[in-house]
């Protein structure tokens, strides 16, 4: 499985693109249009727990660094991760964490979709975040603010509030904190998956499963 790669040029996170390969997306026929004013939120948010699924006391932690505009992240989340969730997260073996690492693959959507997702998490909870992420990644080839609103609504959130969060960067500081942590851990491509602090060779269900089994 390919990954989206960038060379990090500074602590501030300037990036230079290498090539991308592989795409995945759904049809836009189901996405409604939203007539939102998208007023700028009154406050920005600088701290928020990382979205997580599974038993907080699970013996193994799996951490995935992702960019919402990365096609390889879309494949990981929609095709590979469901196996990990069913076999390990739902069974109480693994605590799964999402970390944002906007490379950015796309200046608008790497940050915009992530901001909207963290807003859904902030208001509706971690499970809603992952519901948003699933819908968003299914439509990653056709991102628009309507897609962002649709993903939020599917997760039980307010589409117009999510669009405003995305447009105005309400959670930019939260994203940057995750990004900085990823850079410090040596992440140079998305998705990068860690099992108990060790990077997995490739972001596939098979490789991650092997790493989890070895850590048990």
List keywords for this structure.
alpha+beta; Glutaredoxin; electron transport
Any guess at the CATH architecture?
3-Layer(aba) Sandwich
Q: What percent of the residues sit in helical stretches (DSSP H or I)?
A: 40-55%
The CATH superfamily turns out to be Glutaredoxin
| Uncertain stretches | 6-28
Largest sheet: 5 strands, mixed
Note the total helix count: 7
Structural class: alpha+beta
Multimeric organization: single chain
Query: Got a strand count?
Result: 8
If you compute it from the alpha carbons, what radius of gyration comes out, rounded to the nearest whole angstrom? 16 Å
CATH fold descriptor: Glutaredoxin
Bulk shape: globular
Describe the protein.
This protein has a single domain, classed as Glutaredoxin, CATH 3.40.30. The protein has 216 residues and is α+β, with helices and mostly antiparallel strands. The protein is built from seven helices and eight strands. The longest helix is centred in the middle third of the chain and has 19 residues, at 71-89. Mean pLDDT is 89; it is low at 6-28. The strands form two sheets. The protein has a five-stranded mixed beta sheet with strand order 3-5-4-7-8. The chain has a three-stranded antiparallel beta sheet with strand order 2-1-6. Helices cover 43% and strands 15% of the residues.
């Amino acid at each position: 499985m390919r990954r989206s790669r960038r060379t990090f040029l500074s602590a501030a996170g300037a990036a230079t693109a290498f090539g991308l390969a592989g795409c995945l997306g759904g049809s836009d026929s189901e996405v409604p249009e939203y007539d939102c004013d998208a007023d700028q939120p009154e406050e920005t948010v600088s701290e928020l727990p990382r979205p997580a699924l599974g038993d907080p006391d699970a013996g193994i932690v799996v951490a995935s660094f992702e960019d919402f505009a990365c096609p390889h992240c879309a494949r990981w989340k929609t095709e590979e991760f469901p196996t990990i969730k069913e076999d390990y997260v739902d069974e109480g073996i693994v605590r799964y964490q999402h970390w944002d690492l906007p490379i950015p693959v796309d200046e608008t959507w790497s940050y915009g979709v992530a901001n909207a997702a963290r807003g859904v998490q902030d208001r509706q909870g971690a499970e809603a975040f992952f519901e948003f992420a699933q819908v968003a990644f299914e439509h990653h080839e056709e991102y628009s603010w309507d897609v962002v609103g649709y993903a939020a609504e599917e997760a039980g959130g307010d589409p117009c509030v999510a669009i405003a969060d995305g447009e105005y960067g309400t959670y930019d500081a939260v994203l940057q904190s995750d990004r900085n942590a990823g850079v410090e851990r040596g992440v140079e491509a998305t998705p990068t998956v860690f099992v108990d602090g060790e990077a997995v060779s490739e972001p596939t269900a098979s490789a991650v499963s092997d790493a989890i089994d070895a850590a048990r």
